[in-house]
Fold these 3 entries.
Entry 1:
Amino acid sequence: MDPATGIEPVITSRNLRKMYGPHLALDDINLDSPPGAIGILGPNGAGKSTLFKCLLGLITTTSGEGTVLGYDIRTEGEKIRSRIGYMPEYDALDPGLSGVDQVRYSGELLGMNPAHATRRAHEVLQYVGLKEQRYRKIETYSTGMKQAAKLACALVHDPDVLICDEPTNGLDQRARDFMLQTLKNTVTEGNRTVLMSSHVMDDVQAVCDRIVMIHKGKIVVQRRIDDLASQVEREIEISVWGGASRMQEELESRGLVVRRMGRVLRVIRVDESTTSEIINAAVSAQVQVRQMQEYDPDLEDIFLLIMDKLGAEVKRTSDLMTEAHTGGDETA
Amino acid sequence: MTKLPKEDLDFEGSKTRMEVAYGAGDGDEDAKAIVAKSEAHVGTLFEQSYRPWDGELGPRWTRNYAIFRHHVYGLFRGTGHRHYHPMVRLSIFVILLYSLLPVLMLFLASLSSDGFLNDTFSRLWGINRYNLWGQVLGYFPRNLCCWPMLTALVVGGMISDDRRFGTSAIYFSRPVTRTDYTVMKYISVAVVLGFVIVLSYFVYYTSAIVFNGEGWAYLVDTLPMFLGGLIAGILVVITYTSIGLALSSISQSRFFAAIAFLAVIYGTKLLALLVDSQFDTSILYVLSPYDSLAHIGQWLLGIDPNYDHPLAFSIVSMLLYNAASVALLTFRVGSLEVTRE
């Protein structure tokens, strides 16, 4: 139990380590996750999937210990999996089954009797927005419907913890919004814990209040998003016209730290005088400042900042995405 | 575009001349169209509310029985369980009917009072060592064609579908162990094969007793033969299930698993047959799972073997085929992933 909050953590681990032969997949993982929505972030190969497998009790850890809902991940994997709902990243549905049969079978595999599983399948399919499509074969489902069906399979037994691996993969904006809303409802209304991995920082920010960032098998950050955002240096965002490069040079010559994204420059706010420094720099550089505002850092900024500090060459989070994440849309 | 004369469009007291002409006196001129008003609010498609479930999850056997039911009931029911193509179900049904053909012949023989016909039918389909062996292992169309075909149809997508569609995650992210998964898939296939191979053998033997009105003495005389054939049938089911599932576990294709199984059965048989016909040696029949089983079956039923090599070779061959298949199956099921492969 966390002495400060008095809340029992749902997931804990101490010095958890997992090696695949000589390759170190997880290194000294120390987790203390309270109930709520937690985003698991990290570049590809960081160890997110290995962490999920450890938490599900599917693989033996090399050393260390951990618990999920009070059950030991080394010895009580079956009990953990009975109380966890797992939504895999890729398609894990039988295309020959209808939505309701697939969800019912998922429930039966957990030990639900067929009548309960059928009734519950109808309920959760309605919850994920597939009420009208539940009797259709899964092979006729769109990507969004398949993601929703996977979520229904994971929710069928009303799990205490829901683990979602890239839940918005390949979804269009509308389906994505609905999926995020559903996950959020599961946390707020259902009072369940959601662990969600995603490369789309907006998605994580929309659902989660905490993040766990993994890099090269190590946890590098484990905090509330609000706390992290308050620690990031404040920036002033300016939109300039006619010589962004000149403006950048001018600002840098005045000792200011600048990040440039096309015509938009973000200048780290040093003190009250930074604003007037920017205006003076614009006069010197002879550029128009069309917009100037305080910039609130989002999760994307926090992620990139941390990755940058760790020396990871990640320019933007979309670099981390494969075709499976974007559904083949390179602009996503 | 044709233009109407101006006067036709002139309004007279909110009515055109056309309206005055056609609507005079029948009340139409006062008719009003009621249009849906814009303030009709846009409804919510559905109200999303999380409903908890406080039921109890059953023990291990309920989960395992769900796997068994899913795979076996799919053969009998069109929806709700594993989907078998209608042609697959039809083929299995035809094979079952074909395996029960001797029962019909025995029935016809029992109806006949003609001594010659009765003798001929009894010789061809009556209960004796050769016919019992033939029912499970001997006669070409059924045993070298129907049983492998049946196995190929059943095992085709049994594990390869899980690999192909990623549905292994449905099992392993739940409290289903890999052992349970493998054992229940194995039992599912074995039950379907057993239903056709062993049950048809049992029905054949019992119907012969019923149709011929045989008594306890006959039963005692023939029971050892029957049990020998029964064991042979069970060995066929076990061996074909092991090989079939192992082949299903190494691919993502139903077709590969099915065709590979037929290739193993027919390929080894054909190779051994060619060598036997050219060099007059039966030793290569130890490579053929079918011939190993046939050899063991002949021994179990006490009939002269068709093979020159010692029986021990065939027993070892059958054991090796089973052991290698189960080892491959276990290894491949162990490699099925829950997260991305």
Entry 2:
Amino acid sequence: MKEEFSVLVGGKAGQGIKWAAETLGKFFTYSGLEVFVYHDYESVIRGGHNFSIVRISKEKVYAHLNKIDVIVAFDINTVKLHEKKLAKEGKIICDVSLKHEAEKLTKKKIIALPLNKFGKSANAAGIAACLLIRGFDTYELLKIIKDKRISENIVAVNEIEQILGKKETINSKHKLKINKKREFLNGSETIAEGLIAAGLQRYFAYPMTPSSIVLHYLAKQQKRFGLAIQPENEIAVANLALGSAYAGCKTAVGTSGGGFDLMHEALSLSGMAEIPFVVVMAQRAGPSTGVPTYSSQSDLMSVINAGHGEFPRFIVAPATIEDAFYWSSRAMNIAWQFQIPSIILVDKMITESDQSVELDRKKTKNMKFNIAFPGSISKAVKVSSNEHDEQGFTTENPEIIKKMQEKRMKKRENLIKFLHQEKRVRFLGELNSKNIVFCWSSTLGALVEAKKMTSKKFEIVAPIILEPFPKGEIRKAVSNAKKIICIEANATGQLASLLKQKLCIDPIKILKYDARPFDPLELARKLEEVL
Amino acid sequence: MKKEENFETATINTWCPGCGNFGILAALKEALKELSRKHGKENIVMVGGIGCHAKILDYVNVNSFYGLHGRTLPVMTGIKLANPKLQVIGFAGDGDAYAEGIGHLIHAAKRNTDVTAIVHNNGVFALTTGQATPTAAFGFVDKSTPQGNLENPINPVKLMLAAGATFVARAYAGDIEFLKEIILKAVAHKGFSFIDVLQPCVSFNNTFALYNKKVYRMKGKLSFDEAMKKADETEKIPIGIFYEHHKDSYEEVAFEKRNLLKS
């Protein structure tokens, strides 16, 4: 196979587009290749237009590209909307009924097959055709297709193989060896696994895209850790979580922007009562309901400033699906060690994209903490939303108020010291370059890919921990910089404003706020303009 | 012999002299003596919202979670789901339970978690110096409704019956002995138990004389339909258990019947 190629699977919601892309992803991952899958779907259940891009490579890939080698089209709209993305030698696989119309839309090679004949297994037939024309053996595919329609899927795959075996020449059948130790996961799953690794016992969440997959996954894993429950609303979610943590269970919640807004009061309570509170906060495009199923990085300021009053908090924005595993586990342990709110800030590109991953489980730990819970000691354990003394009794005494406020804020200093052992910032590219490019969270993926496409030299600086802000490391990194750029998927440059606030750095901003992730190619062009 | 626990704390009580809350505190302390013997004091957890009622947490030397206004019930549920061995008794004002957090109350009843909710119902926001709550009478005059309350009060007993609560009771802060009995029965009930406590507020809604005249103890068991009817009585005000029936609690299903709990 060539170094890399990309497949776009498209059609209407309900046609099994996501399943097809994920099955391809699993196939190549288990075969030892590296995969990144991006899912683009509208907020509809049936109809509309959904597509997924599967990028396959010999090297690790962190983002999808809009340059496609094979399109598997389950409707004509897919041809219409995406044929421009096809490479010169690119091919379109579609049902025979679409052939005539597709030929009018594109000059690219069309492989028309009787996909619709297989009914709901049309998607299995489509991906089998895709594998065959790329010269892969479908034998291993059958092992991966574990589905309700397994027998129908097998029939579909076999028939497509017979047809294409006659029509297309399979030059070199790649005999891939399936290795199921390699994992093909989305960020929601790596987050959930990270939380479980740190000893998660209770998970509470109200459905909200793009955080719901964490709930779905954990609901299926309950036997491994405890309970995953969907209460009446996000306010209940947050308060259940505080009650649960107070009673001794390692607990986490998941939500997106609007749901997180409803949790602010409880977040502040967590700060006051010093109850560990772990929040998986998956951003989507706002303000308000915004664009529910699309991506954005516009809630950094929200999580930094959420909740009234002053209290320390930990905010981590893992930059990759793999990192999300490690940092979710750390976020849980930090919440418990310091008894503070701990926020895992991610976005749709992380929670809903899939990648081939190798999770380093040795790096995570289910740590035990010496905290008193009701029932564990004879003394009463009292926590309070009111200002309170060391025993938990309400106070209005100015000396005690001052002392307790200082006690809580002191935890921030201790946390800063503790975090010295962590890689709080990721540095990539030409270290000590005069050109520094900042980014955070999932944008790192697109930036790493963009870097491969440009000859411009620069150092990538991606802060992973955003509160307490890693000032020292960043100051050092920019000390010799001539040009500083900050790339973010929001309209105001929220990391840029943090850099200005904390370090008086005023970077050139490259922003994107159309609710779509950065396209590496487009990003490379923009970087060439400014560098 | 070990001196009997009196649950006293060093906190100075700041309720107004003669407040109905003193009756609730007295009944609770009596009930706690029995509950401590039965379950161990360390296994009892009190949860409160915000308002005059919640000060009760500072006055009782038992595990407590002094939470947010309106959010007593989700905190109680969270505690119970974390450790089903704990006996969770929640306290809420009528502002907490019937205004800010009414959704949680209905869902707690629906969920049937084995916890006990005690609502200090005085028909007024007292700690904010007197505004109408959802149980304030039509025409009630106060700071936020100086021309009289334009809304009709809700009926908490009927609301909880309709929501499927498996133990629904009303008590009166002026009848301490009966309140204590009802608290003990509510805690003993497996499933969600609810007590609406008529609590006169001497400063903003003094109903002592009215309740002393009208309140009477119910005798015998009521069917669901009889309970719904009984809850409508206003000439005389019945107190006692309106309705009780057994249904598996949420934790029983979640932990025992689904065998999910790992530890």
Entry 3:
Amino acid sequence: MTEVAQQVANWLTIGGIYALLALGIAVIFSILGLINIAHGELVTISGYSMVALAANGVPWALVIPLAILVALVASVLMERVAFRPMRGAPLSAMLLGSLALSIVIQNLLLLFVGARPKTIGFPGWTQSSFEVAGVTVGWLDVGCWVVTAAVLAAVIVFLRRSVRGLALRAAAEDFEVTRLMGIRADSVIRGAFAVAGLLAGIAAFFLLATSSVVVPGTGFTPMLKGFIAAVIGGLGSLSGAVLGGFVLAGVEVVFQLALPASAAPFGDAVVFGVVILVLLLRPNGLLAARSVAVERA
Amino acid sequence: MRVTFPRRSAPVVRQSEAAPDAGALLSVRGLTTCYGATVAIRDVSLDVHPGEIVTILGANGAGKTTTLGSITGLVRPSAGSIFFDGVDIAGETPERIVGCGIALSPEGRRVFAKLTVRENLRLGAGLKGQSELDERYAEVVDLFPVLERKRDDFAGLLSGGEQQQLAIGRALMSRPRLLLLDEPSLGLAPIVVSSVFDLIGRLRDRGMTIVLVEQNVDRALGLADRGYVLQTGRVIVDGPAAELRDGSAVEDAYLGLGGRS
């Protein structure tokens, strides 16, 4: 029983992080049809800014919001510098463009920061834990649950209640008609990248606090997991992305328990196998919200 | 999904001799629009005067929707001028053009299916403030009472006729001076088609200037003041609606495709 509770705690933490990443990827995909491969680099950039800020004696109460802000600004800059000049180009070109951007950022980091892992001196509370009924729960886990729930709720309120959120939802459904409403394409797209950057920055903190190190390639796995979660949920469906994050984390946790230790190296292969199975059964993902738009294309 | 952004690079080729008709609200001169190497419309010129209904007719693929797309900025014309109130807006972005006072109810209605009726109308006003919004909303639901009754329903759940009313209502939310209607009767039951045409007549009575693209030739000519007939991207005939209705030019343009009713 305690074992199950322990795994549920792990699942919620990993699922929350995946949900944040997947939601960011889905927000951009739903509007531009672009899968931003460089999304993971936001995690990396946020990580290095934590290193720099903490090393310069900035208190952690400031480091965390600043590092999240850095991810947000980096995301908006990515759009301005890399994707805006490519607007109107075929989606395959945009996809390759985002891959190129990812490689460029990684190599710039290699060049100017170096390949050696940088350790982030996280504050003590992130590594400490407490015990409830035999279940060990990290303060970081609690923080992750609370923040993920709060952020997801805030994003939902933003999308449902605000005019800008309404414009984002409309743009996700039919960008052309949204522009016919007099809503500027630039501002909607910038808003989407800002939301994606914010989510990536928050995910970066919880991801890196468990590993405590950052290297130029840090962002790749989070991007992949977020992307897969978004695909499982139904690419472009925002609620699907959140659901996909928790499903992917659930599959990972279950297989970590079920597989013998000797099979551990193949864990990802098994997880991806399950993903393929899900997509065979539901090719459009669990919440296939884009079917209308897909038909039109 | 398809997102089209007009390429900013190529400037629209202006014709130096092109001049707007002084009394016209909209004056299109020598408009040519291409999709890649395919010329969709070539050297189209037309005028719309304040308070009139002008209909654009033609078979499928004649270039009707492309003409409206070029006027609204959804596709970028490669040559020609589009004077609205004397100002050339050819090649501007859709968001700018709607700000000038041109609204489009697009082909196939394209309401935001996953948003409520009220949210659809809200967007029609762009990002306008609340008081302005309430005023316009009241005007539009006065014209379309059904939209007020179903304001919290998802637009995707409305009937075809209701969706068409929503699409037109949404376009009116921007308080346009020129309303472009692209095939408003498409896919609707005959009785609903009648009500849509009645509605367009009511809009005209309120002083709205309208460009109506239609497949339903008889009804469009019955309502319109003047008409233009497109064939493979060119205007082959234009004139008062009554003349077009009586002559054979329209039928010829359809090459039998339109039927002889």
